[in-house]
Every structure is written in C-alpha cells, then in structure tokens.
UniProtKB/TrEMBL annotation:
Key words, A-Z: Hydrolase
Name of this protein: Alpha/beta hydrolase
GO molecular function: hydrolase activity
Highest taxon in the source lineage: Bacteria
Transmembrane segments: none
Gene3D superfamilies cross-referenced by the UniProt entry: alpha/beta hydrolase (3.40.50.1820)
Domain named AB hydrolase-1: residues: 86-179
C-alpha cells in the first residue's frame, strides 16, 4: 500500500507580509536581512489558549519563578498532588498546558506533572527567546520542583529535554515527541520558508553563534543523544509536515538505549492527544 504524501499546506505558514519584508531586506543588504530573519526566528507566536486546555489551566497551581541563568521569569504549572513528578516541555509557540491529554492520563496513573510557559510563551513575559533559554528554564525548574522521574518534550521541547539531560537533568527516562534534530536543517528550512537564499541560513547561524557565544550544532538533538545513557522513547509521525520523520529516526540511531515509535496521519500536533501514543508513553514509563 502506497504511503500517503505529506500535505505541505498543513505546515505552519509564514505570513506573506513577513516574506515580502524579508525579500526587501535581502535586496538592501545581507546584514539587514540576517538581523530581520534572526528577529523572526526568535519570536514565537502567542496563540490564544484553546478551550480544551482550560481544565488543566484552572486546576493547576501556577507560580512565576525567576531563572537566574537568563535573567528572565517563567510561569509554572503544578498539576496533581503526587510526589511522583513528571516534567512536561512544550514546543515552539506552545504553552504549559499543551500536553494536557498526556497530563490527564498521567494523573490517573498516580503521577503529577510540572510544566511551564517558556520565555516569551504563554503567560511568561518577553518577546523573543531561543532553545538555550528553554534548557536553562528546565534546569532551574528541576532545582525548585524536582526531582522528576520522567521528562516529556514535544518538538523544540524534545530537543530541549535531550540537551537538558546532557547538561545534568536527572531523570530515569525521557520521551520526545515530534522532536527537531539538526539545528542547521531547522535554519535551512526557516530561510527557505522566508523565500531567502540558502547562504542566508549560514549567516543566520553565524549571527547566533556570535551573539550567544555558542556553537549552534552543539544543540542538535542527535549530538545530545550520543551522550545519553537513560532509556529514551522517540515518537514521531510519518506525516509530520513541520519536522520530517527522518529527524526522529536519526535521533533514535544515535541513542544508546532508545525505542522508536512511528505513527501515521497524526502530523505535528494531533499526535499529542492520540490514544495509541498515550498508551505507548504509559507503557514505556511503567516498564522496568
């Protein structure tokens, strides 16, 4: 049976006005378009919270905590009362309540969850952020709310979980869903969607490396995976139009103790509420 093709229209689209602005900047100068692209790349969209997340939002104990490493504050959500805690990490332009279906099932199985709105996301302050700030937030949240038995991350949150484990987050297992992988691939895809030449992607990488004094490839998920010993469940959909399935497969290939679970027809977000994915997640958590 032939696999159904990925529908590119389901991928997140960049507004036409931004694409036009990028091309105007590119016409003026490479430096200008690089700065413009960097600003767009680091600015998440704050979506309105959908009704399906209201219950978790209402029942959570919420607190604003300070993250010294980045001099920013984030809003945290404690959901449930169990001492068996699981950390949930949303993706780009997501929220601390986005993994509510997984959280609800975890509560029914004797766990509680801690999640957060990353900098510039949800109820947290700020306009711009980058993955290193997700990681710094995770490590500070562990200090204040941990220890955690498990960490679960979606999309950029999956990359952040792997990097946090590499950087010292102590969990027994990790689960990543629809995780991105190679940072350069992400920059290439972004500049392509902006309608810019591929060389701008390299300028963008150099801009971030100079600004943050880091090597961008050091944050690639497969590199973190190579240093992780704990069991990791990698969940990815064959029809994910935003993060291609090759990312999940490549991460799994670089894990010492990885399990790969591939789905079909769920895309990048519907996968978070799928019962088979939740069932596999619970099985992975409970198995010794």
């Amino acid at each position: 049976m032939a696999k159904k093709a990925i529908n590119p229209t389901k991928s997140l689209k960049i507004p036409q006005i931004i694409i036009i602005s990028a091309k105007i900047c590119a016409f003026i100068s490479t430096k200008l378009v690089t700065k413009f692209a960097a600003r767009i790349f680091t600015t998440p969209i704050k979506h309105k919270v959908p009704k399906r997340e209201f219950e978790m939002d209402r029942k959570s104990s919420q607190k604003t905590i300070y993250i010294p490493a980045i001099d920013k504050s984030v809003v945290t959500y404690e959901y449930g009362k169990s001492n068996r805690k699981i950390l949930l990490v949303h993706g780009w332009s997501g929220r601390g309540t986005q993994l509510f279906k997984i959280a609800d099932e975890l509560l029914l199985n004797g766990f509680s969850t801690v999640s957060f709105d990353a900098p510039a996301h949800g109820k947290s302050e700020g306009k711009t952020t980058i993955m290193s700030e997700f990681i710094a937030s995770i490590l500070e949240i562990e200090k204040q709310f941990g220890p955690f038995e498990i960490a679960i991350g979606h999309s950029l949150g999956g990359m952040s979980v792997l990097n946090s484990v590499k950087d010292g987050l102590k969990v027994n297992k990790a689960i990543i869903i629809g995780s991105g992988d190679i940072v350069q691939d992400i920059l290439d895809e972004f500049t392509f969607k902006l309608g810019l030449k591929k060389e701008i992607s390299n300028h963008l990488r150099d801009f971030f490396e100079e600004k943050y004094k880091v090597k961008m490839d050091d944050f690639s998920a497969y590199r973190a995976a190579q240093k992780i010993k704990i069991p990791v469940l990698v969940v990815h959909d064959h029809d994910d139009p935003e993060v291609l399935v090759k990312a999940g497969i490549h991460i799994h290939q670089n894990l010492e103790n990885g399990t790969l679970f591939l789905t079909e027809g769920l895309g990048h977000r519907k996968i978070l509420g799928n019962q088979n994915v939740i069932k596999k997640t619970l099985e992975f958590i409970k198995n010794n």
